[in-house]
């Protein structure tokens, strides 16, 4: 895997993506957890075609600033770029915009894992 892989995803801010509905606040604005999920989705989908069979990525670190509110009905766009590859660790630059400008920025890290082994480890925690 090499740096420079980019992706973008757009969505419309609907009621289920607001702070009030997601439990991260009381207002009808784009929720920070929704922005984080959008960043993760944009990043993992960018590198998925470059993984070997049986591999997946998991999010491990976020350093994101949510700098402006976005109301219901507005379009939000996330752009990611793979900026560092260190073995199985992948680091992405992420920028999120609404129709008026930047609303979020920062970095996101993911690790390449063996999906079957990872799922088995998680499932082994069940009592």
Compact summary:
The protein is α+β, with helices and mostly antiparallel strands.
The H-and-E topology, N to C, reads as EHHEEEEH
- Helix content class: 10-25%
Distance between the termini: 38 Å
Q: Which ranges are low-confidence, i.e. pLDDT below 50, for 5 or more consecutive residues? A: none
Give the overall shape.
globular
The assigned structural class equals alpha+beta
Number of strands: 5
How confident is the prediction overall: mean pLDDT? Answer: 97
Number of helices: 3
- Rg (C-alpha, Å): 16 Å
Largest sheet: 5 strands, antiparallel
Strand order of the largest sheet: 1-3-4-5-2
Strand residue percentage:
35-45%
Descriptive account of the structure:
The structure is a single chain. The protein is α+β, with helices and mostly antiparallel strands and 127 residues long. It is built from three helices and five strands; from the N terminus they run βααββββα. The longest helix is centred in the first third of the chain and has 16 residues. The radius of gyration is 16 Å and the shape is globular.
Features:
127 residues; alpha+beta; five-stranded antiparallel sheet
Topology:
Blueprint: E1 6-12, H1 19-22, H2 32-47, E2 55-66, E3 75-86, E4 89-98, E5 101-114, H3 115-123
Antiparallel strand pairs: 1-3, 2-5, 3-4, 4-5
